[in-house]
From TrEMBL, chain A:
Keywords: Cell membrane, Membrane, Transmembrane, Transmembrane helix. It is found in: Cell membrane. GO terms for cellular component: plasma membrane. It is a multi-pass membrane protein. PANTHER family: UPF0397 PROTEIN BC_2624-RELATED (PTHR37815), UPF0397 PROTEIN SPR0429 (PTHR37815:SF3). Belongs to the UPF0397 family. Pfam families: ECF-ribofla_trS. The chain crosses the membrane at residues 6-29, 41-65, 71-95, 116-139, 145-171. Coiled coil: none annotated. This is UPF0397 protein B4167_1961. The keyword Cell membrane applies.
From TrEMBL, chain B:
It holds the Pfam family CbiQ. One of its GO terms (cellular component) is plasma membrane. It is a multi-pass membrane protein. The gene is cbiQ. The keyword Transmembrane helix applies. CDD domains: EcfT (cd16914). This is Cobalt ABC transporter. The chain crosses the membrane at residues 20-36, 42-57, 64-85, 114-136, 247-266. It is found in: Membrane. InterPro entries: ABC/ECF_trnsptr_transmembrane.
Length: 184, 276
């Protein structure tokens, strides 16, 4: 198999991941009471998928999932945020090798690494990239988009921090640990 | 439920007869044009043109009513948010300020602000019918084939096709799991209090995600067995050859984009200014 092309498993992970992203984004986001800002459960899922399948899968799940969600349920694609989903998915995936979740170990050290990276990635994405793209593409007022980005970013950081960590811990438990067999 | 989600509607119309690739290219050109311009005259023209195309496609308003209402509500909220955060944006852009109604200080309603917000609304209104039409007139399987034709790697096009294929399945799983958890007293619908809801969400998420991961294994094994990804190219059952009307449509839309760019940028500004 050529190394540059995606493996079949990654392709399927992107497809199914995007489908789950769509459904969670539409049906599982929990409104906080402040307009236009929800607890987006789907980013916790994105983080999990990116950590399992790597940066390319993470980025593409964000891109395809978010674009399809917008297209199917809202009839128009909000490109600036779709790009941000791709961006954070990709960044989440960069620590995939380091976390090595397949080893079945997800201890305190890894939890801290994961959360540092997820907060950093989302800060870049929601506080900077999203508002800038909103201004460049849609010429929306500066103060509005930065406040919006701030709100969404913080709530997503908390969501991924709590739910994402929980999901990763759960997933790690389903993997067989290396050296888990004892000789009797 | 059926109308909550946009899906392919099978009718016979000139728009349906165009190949998926043509519609995809036209949709991208159209969105680019609408995204770049802020010229009211062009936006109005595009808006009216999109209504005409919509009429030609024989898609009826009630087919998409649910989604349309949803979008209009979103537009309204967005407009209110813009006014609350930046009531003088229009004055900043157009350089003049004709006060219509006096409120407190910066919240005075100006003609420029109204015009600016009209433009933003028009911008969305021009893209929405095109996007809606694209989804309801393109068969999902043809959509993947079209992505491949315009140059996207077939592996990624296939991932998109898989996503479209599995969205209904995942939705069904999600419902089943949510109902099952509700029966156990773990509700994540809006009847539950906020914090409880967030907590219960993970009870629904975990089974959904683990079953999806299992799906990934099964599907990728099945595809591997059938030799997916061994060759550089792949054919599509639903791909149709280009015909004269496809070329005509694409040329028309390219011209439209060029005209839009010329008219928008000829005076060096994205905005059409009727006030100066």
């Amino acid at each position: 198999m050529n190394k540059n092309t995606l493996s079949v498993r990654t392709i399927v992970a992107i497809g199914i991941g995007a489908a789950v992203f769509v459904i969670l984004g539409r049906f599982a986001s929990i409104p906080t009471g402040i307009p236009n800002s929800n607890i987006e459960v789907t980013y916790a899922f994105l983080a999990l998928m990116a950590v399992i399948f790597g940066p390319v899968a993470g980025g593409l799940i964000g891109l395809i999932g978010h674009a399809l969600k917008d297209l199917i349920f809202y009839g128009s694609i909000w490109w600036s945020w779709v790009v941000v989903s791709m961006f954070v998915g990709f960044l989440f995936g960069l620590i995939s090798k380091k976390l090595d979740i397949e080893s079945g170990e997800f201890g305190r050290q890894k939890i801290i690494t994961f959360n540092l990276v997820q907060v950093g990635a989302q800060a870049l994405g929601w506080f900077l990239l999203a508002p800038v793209l909103d201004i460049v593409i849609y010429a929306e007022p500066t103060s509005k988009v930065f406040i919006q980005g701030l709100g969404v970013g913080i709530s997503n950081m908390v969501t991924v921090g709590i739910l994402g960590t929980l999901l990763l811990t759960l997933y790690a438990k389903t993997r067989t640990k290396t050296g888990s067999l004892d000789r009797e | 439920m059926a109308n909550e989600m946009l899906s392919y509607i099978d009718r016979t119309s000139p728009i349906h007869r165009l190949t998926g690739a043509t519609k995809l290219v036209c949709f991208i050109l159209w969105s680019t044009a609408a995204m770049l311009t802020y010229d009211t005259r062009i936006l109005l023209f595009l808006f009216i043109a999109s209504l005409v195309i919509f009429y030609v496609s024989k898609i009826r308003l009630r087919d998409i009513l649910f989604v349309l209402i949803f979008i209009l509500v979103f537009l309204l909220i967005n407009n209110i948010a813009i006014y609350l955060f930046s009531p003088q944006e229009g004055v900043k852009i157009y350089g003049t300020g004709h006060v219509l109604v006096e409120f407190a200080g910066r919240y005075n309603m100006t003609l420029e602000q109204l015009f600016y917000q009209l433009n933003i609304t028009l911008k969305y209104l021009t893209v929405i019918p095109a996007a809606l039409l694209f989804i309801v007139t393109t068969h999902p399987s043809e959509f993947a084939a079209s992505l491949n034709r315009i140059g996207v790697s077939y592996r990624i096009a296939y991932a998109v096709s898989l996503a479209l294929r599995y969205i209904p399945d995942v939705q069904r799983d999600f419902r089943n799991i949510a109902k099952a958890q509700q029966a156990r007293g773990l509700d994540m619908s809006k009847n539950e209090k906020f914090l409880k809801r967030v907590k219960n969400a993970s009870a629904v998420l975990a089974p959904l995600i683990l079953s999806s991961l299992e799906k990934i294994e099964i599907i990728s094994n099945a595809m591997e067995l059938r030799g997916f990804g061994k060759k550089k190219k792949r054919t599509w059952y639903n791909a149709r050859p280009f015909q004269k009307r496809d070329y005509t449509a694409i040329i028309l839309f390219v011209l439209l984009l060029i005209a839009t760019l010329l008219i928008t940028y000829h005076d060096g500004s994205r905005f059409y200014n009727p006030f100066s």
